[in-house]
Amino acid sequence: MGIYLMSDPIVSFEMHSKSHGPCFIEAVIGHYIDRSFDYEFPARLGEPVLGGFIKVPFQNRILDACITQIKEEPSIPEVKIKKVRDTHDAIPPLSQALFKLGQWMSEYYACPLGLVFKSFIPSAVFKSVRCRKELSCATGGNQEPFVLTPDQNHCVETVTSSINRSLHEVFLLWGVTGSGKTEVYFHCIRETLQQGRSALMLVPEIALTTQLIERVHQRFKESVAVFHSRLTDGERALNWLKVARGEIRFVLGARSAVFAPLKRLGLLIVDEEHERAYKQEEAPKYNARDMAVLRGRLENAVVILGSATPSMESYFNCQMKKYRLLKLPKRISKHEMPSVIAVDMQKERTRHKKLFIFSDKLVNLMDDRLKKKEQIILFLNRRGFSTCLVCPRCGMVLRCSQCSVSLTYHKEENNLLCHHCEHKTSVPSVCPECKLSGMQYLGFGTEKVEKNIRLLFPDARIARLDSDALKKKGALEKVWDDLKSGQVDILIGTQMIAKGLDVANVTLVGVLAADLALNIPDFRSGESTFQLITQVAGRAGRGDIKGEVVIQSDALSHPVLIHALNQDFSSFYEYEIRYRKELQYPPFVHFIRLEIAENDEQDASRLAKILFSGLKKQRDFKPARIFEPVPCPLKKIRTRYRWQILVSTGKVKPMLQLICAYLRREFASKNITIDVDPQSFL
Length: 682
Ligand code: ADP
Ligand code: ZN
Prior knowledge:
By secondary structure, this protein is of the alpha/beta class.
């Protein structure tokens, strides 16, 4: 993909040569200002360093900044230049590789460099450098590694031979769920650390990886820094500094850990590389997987992208011979892949004649497992109790006052919740429109599933895991522990239970409404549906007993579901890539998404249309394609009306330069956001 089209380094990294006159620097300040500022660097502060952190006077304040250029003359000599106030001596400067990565990101994602660098370093670092509190770093544990299977061994040997030769290479490790990928990562990390180099491992959502963190702590004697969301600002800052000073050589973390200031980086691992969570949805809107690949290149390091369901992009890159494919096609020893049973819910419904949630097949199998004292997971990717509240008389659907979505009924809290802005309202006793009582509750979410399961199996021990349940502190750890120790018979949850869970006694997985995501207007909806079903199914039968997966759906004849039922990634890929090619969608092109947001509906549509025709008139504007402006599927969010324009292109940077220049000239004051390689089109 385009991230290989790296432009030449813009700056050279030599230290500023000693000169007699005053020395000047350019610095970016952690603000939404898309430019850098000149300062004089006084001799008393020593020599300036590129990527070094300093304090500068800016609009009557003293702000933290980062040096982006060193020069003998200021850009505009006649202007009175302010002086750098101080240097942050205790904060190591950005490495050359990170500095270049930042510049590249700034151009590729059309984001001010100051903002990019700001996301590289936790803000608390600037405050905490003076406090010398020592953080207990996670050492200890020396659990012996497993003897690798021949397949695992082949993977480890291939990867380590590249690490030993300091070759930059990207591997896609495609291994079915439970095939021992994590074990391969651990061996490669150990080898990297033994070589005196450092290692970085990214996971999509660190809050959900308590099991993995445990395994990492057990395994590595070396200090490892885990960057997770529950660290305090101070802990995060101290961890960052320890990494920057080279005291810690192994970092495990989510998205933003890809910028951890590790030195002599030898290995970067992106687990579950297909996950959308790697995309940051605020500026800089980067994809951490792509940044890991790029950083690996800049650091001459090896990159492993791992998944049971690789992204179309990464698998395509293997076919193009940009990445090397490594396979783990079998589960470890006795862990056979589970068998899959499909249930056509349309047929079931005609028999039962009313909205119901569980097929007879699923209920019978659950009954069987409960008797055998085996465990069950039920998956539904929709939280809440009922999906909407409708008046049976006038058809009025209760919607959020700020967003164009219907409100979800949450029974436990007894209110209506907007899943976009989290706005809460109480449940009306009568229809707000026609004032009749008897509003109807339609659809079902995890909360309702839980209630119905309790009625069906009153003696079973049941737990639920979704973002509502997670609001209680420690809830996640408790459910995890209870599941592992057999205190829970049935776990119900949303996508957060789809991955990572490795509990031997789970022998049945039920996927309710498996086709839910297929209706989302997004060209990747097939891909994510396939991935999600495969991942959830992978939770079953990881122990010695073969697992079973029941997939309930209204759309069993959909090709995506057929491939998912067969658990056949290759044939899914062949099907999907043909469709992507035909329509010229990624990975054959890059998308750039322009979003226009206005308080007035008419303004939004007018602006989108002007922007569209204006762009098309630009000389040199030669996109692969520009799509007509359309309202976003969620046309209103937080009282703002949104329209979007999609541009597809083979080369992102030149296209973006043109778009940005045009926007600056004609739409400087407008609220238009740019998203490169977008993951969401809502
Ligand atoms: P994945 O990351 O592909 O889902 P894991 O690395 O978590 O797979 O391995 C699945 C299970 O098999 C884990 O319980 C792990 O401890 C175990 N395992 C992995 N490799 C081996 C091995 N070589 N020998 C025995 N058990 C292994
Ligand atoms: Zn809302």
